[in-house]
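Chapter review: from sequence to fold.
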Amino acid sequence: MSPAREYYEKTFELLHQHHEWFQGTIPLIASENVPSPAVREALTTDFGNRYAEGWPGE
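The token string follows.
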């Protein structure tokens, strides 16, 4: 197995372990919270790239 493939396998395994650990915890750091499926779906639409400044009609 090539060194690059070994690094890939090790990285993938670590990511898998972290994912399993994260599934069983309650994230208390706001930046680590995972959005709900509904939010993730909304962000894949055109709304994910839109923003507005101020109130409508100002």
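Two observations follow directly from the output. Helices lie at 3-23, 37-43. DSSP finds two helices and no strands in the chain.
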